[in-house]
Amino acid sequence: MLNLKEKLTKNDIKKLYTCGYTEENTTGIEFERLAIHKDNYKAVDYYDGVGNFLREFAKSENWDYITDDYNIIGLKQDHDTITLEPGCQTELSLKPEKTIFDLEKKINYLDKLMMPVLDKFGIKLLQYGVQPVSTNKNINIIPKRRYHIMANYLWGIFSDVMMRETAGVQGCFDFKSEEDAMRKFKIANMLSPFVTAMFANSPIRGGVETGYKTFRGLAWLYTDDERCGFACDFNNDMTFDDYIEKVLESPVIYINKNNENISVAGKFNFNEFMNNGYEGFDADIKDFELHANLYFPDVRLRNFIEIRNHDCTKMPLAVVALYKGILYNESAMSDIENLLSSFSKEDFIELRYNVVKYALQTPCKKYFVSDFAKEILNISQKSLKSMNTGEEVFLEPITELTLQELCPADIILRNWNGIWYKNIDKLAEYLS
Predict the structure, then answer these.
(1) 15, 49, 158, 258, 266 from 163: Cα distances, Å
(2) SS3 for 388?
(3) If you ran DSSP here, which 8-state letter would residue 121 be given?
């Protein structure tokens, strides 16, 4: 009898999400920073600095290599990783913790370990959303096969900016059931443009003022409409199946078979790959996992919720504190749903396009985004205080700004056009 391999089904895929059910309410963070040369503030290339940093740090601190085709592209130790984004942006990805204090402790500890090694190679890590001096034409993609395939495929006019120049902060949050997951997913999407505005931090690019508060946010708007933006229907009936279908409908960039990356350049979507195969290859669960990781909405569903739409700033823990206060409190979630109940999907899409330029000064209904941001912060702060963990302290820096109707970009622009006299040295000193 022939042993025919069963085809991948949507039920198989759904198990990737249902396996995430937990009551733990942990918080995770992925924190990208821009690697620049200390002497001229240009982006650091893999071969003239960052690769050497990874080797030296691994040797001195006993971290394991993460490799791609024998090239070192990151490091790992237990559940924590230091990895590289396409343009040598350096990302800390930390094991989710019960409190944000635990995340803070780990970040401070790793920074203390990394600093002397970075200094040795003349590297600074900027807490900023876009490269301040170098632009994508002068930034090489690191030697990771996936990134080169992506760079050749992504068709948006700013996809190279997104890949090579930008850095962000991502928060990761648990869910206890499908209903809980989809409620949190919807709320995170509703909050997305408001929080993008609050943490906008990339107005200077290539040494000049861009006219946008978050140029990083602008780059994501014009990267690839088929896999970026909102993956949410903004209704109460959305399910795992609905989200999975959106992923299945997006074009496949490449598949990996026998450890070989095979570019398919969007010739078919994943649904078609599941049904028809490709050149003798059938789709399996690893193919879907790869494909889902190449789907880049502002909020991404995994076996946790990953919220991805924030510029890197000097207050990364304020991002995760804001969401923790809301997503882990039933009353806070209800308050957000009530606050934003009058917004349609079209309203959120319009806001997403407008906040990249105006941030908190974006008109919104009969008010401004700043008015809603203040309420959102108040809801989160009240919730965090009720948890009796002291984590509301992490909201203090963003609250101070938001109450003045300012975002980090506003402070930079004020200084850039004032006491800094448009001096890039002053900007780099402020950000590092």
Answers:
(1) 30, 19, 9, 27, 18
(2) coil
(3) T
Contact 325, 336 (CB under 8 A): no
Side chain identity, residue 21? Y
pTM of the model: 0.97
- φ and ψ at 399, to 5 degrees? -65, -40
Could you tell me whether strands 296-297 and 228-229 are parallel, antiparallel, or unpaired per DSSP bridges? parallel
| Distance (Å, whole) CA 380 – CA 395 | 9
CA–CA gap between residue 260 and residue 241 (Å, rounded): 30
Structure tokens at 18: 């249902």
* Residue 24, CA atoms < 13 Å, CB-side half-sphere: 14
Q: Which amino acid is at 245?
A: E
Q: What is the mean pLDDT of each run of 10 residues along the chain (432 residues)?
A: 68 98 98 97 96 97 96 96 98 98 98 97 97 98 97 97 98 98 98 98 98 98 97 94 98 96 97 96 97 98 97 98 98 98 97 98 97 98 98 98 98 98 95 86
76: three-class secondary structure by DSSP: strand
Distance (Å, whole) CA 189 – CA 395: 20
* Distance in angstroms (rounded) separating the CA atoms of residues 196 and 171: 13
Amino acid identity of residue 342, one-letter, is: S
pLDDT value for 363: 98
> DSSP class of residue 172?
E
Give 65-71 contacts, CB < 8 A, sequence gap 24+: 68/143, 68/144, 68/145, 68/146, 69/143, 69/145, 71/142, 71/143, 71/144
Say how far apart CA 46 and CA 189 lie, in whole Å.
34
Segment (H or E) for 337: helix 330-339
